[in-house]
Amino acid sequence: MDRSRPPVGAGLGWRRELIAPLAAGVPEVIRFFELAPENWAGAGGSSARILRAYTERYPFVCHGLSLSLGGPGPLDEAWLRRIKTFMREHGMTLYTEHLSWCADERQLYDLLPIPQTEEAVRWTAARIRRAQDILEQRIGIENASTYVAPPGAELSEAEFITAVLQEADCGLHLDLNNLYVNSRNHGYDAHAFLQALPLERTCYVHVAGHYVEPDGLIIDTHGAEVTDPVWALLEAAYARIGGAVPTCLERDFNMPELPLLAAEVAQIARLQAAAPQPVQTRQVA
């Protein structure tokens, strides 16, 4: 594969636990990998050599965890410059981050909801635009899972996401497990929410599994198989945007054997192949 191309097809999250199984052979259905730069930028020794061996053969997506785009603290421009260098070193063409905040004076190690206000739209969008200026490319912004509704909301969640994307002129990183988790926890229709989003901006898609607490609260764990309602949302999304958008299976723990992960990636690929011709989408460039 030409690693300088943007990712296409169905992909898998890059995890250290997978390095040994992948060394025996990468399943053909896996067309790209996704990694968190926080875990790999600046790595040396054998880790750096292993990563280079794969980025020379496969496209990789850079999915951030710590930029805190909606946070009150200064935007970490030094970190963005490190990401830019890291991406160029490995031929990565797509960077995405969460629509959330996770730091003030220090990292809080959680993705927290942004108040859904007009002021927060302007604040967050300005920071996204600055990130795009530093990276010299449009980025994708992911709808995040939330467990409390931020107070003082002036906009619905879908309206807030749409307003930020439009104000920042960035792409949508559509996470369908997050959408489903929020719909169950906050009591709204997942498919209606999906249709309310500006799907023409979709540049990247996530699917993953979750955990249901005994009281019914759903936790976005990435530690289980993708459920039927999330597959149904993926099929509905492809009906709007087509199957060409790169789509990644997230699995962070409770790792099954590689063939089981590959089977879920293959399900993504089957839905992509069955999707109708896409409407015109706004690609990240």
Distance between the termini: 20 Å
Low-pLDDT runs: none
CATH class: Alpha Beta
Number of DSSP strands? Answer: 12
For the biggest sheet, the summary is: 8 strands, parallel, barrel
In helices, the fraction of residues equals 25-40%
What order do the SSEs take from the amino end to the carboxyl end, as H and E? EHEHHEHEEEHEHEHHEEEHEH
How many separate structural domains? 1
The CATH topology annotation reads as TIM Barrel
> What is the percentage of strand-forming residues?
15-25%
Strand order of the largest sheet: 1-2-3-4-7-8-9-12
Class by alpha and beta content:
alpha/beta
Rounded to the nearest angstrom, the radius of gyration is 18 Å
Supply the CATH architecture: Alpha-Beta Barrel
Brief description of this entry?
This protein has helices spanning 19-23, 37-40, 45-55, 77-89, 118-135, 157-168, 176-186, 190-196, 228-241, 258-274, and strands at 10-13, 32-35, 60-63, 95-98, 101-103, 107-112, 140-142, 171-175, 202-207, 211-212, 218-219, 247-249. It is α/β, with parallel strands linked by helices and 285 residues long. Strand 1 (10-13), helix 1 and strand 2 (32-35) form a beta-alpha-beta unit.
Folded structure, characterized:
- The two termini are 20 Å apart.
- By secondary structure, this protein is of the alpha/beta class.
- The strands form 3 sheets. The chain has an 8-stranded parallel β-barrel. A two-stranded antiparallel sheet has the order 5-6. A two-stranded antiparallel ribbon has the order 10-11.
- It has 10 helices and 12 strands.
- The model has no long low-confidence stretch (mean pLDDT 92).
- The chain is globular.
- The longest helix has 18 residues, at 118-135.
- Helix 1 (19-23) links the parallel strand 1 (10-13) and strand 2.
- It has a single domain, classed as Divalent-metal-dependent TIM barrel enzymes (TIM Barrel, Alpha-Beta Barrel), CATH 3.20.20.
- Helix 5 packs across helix 6.
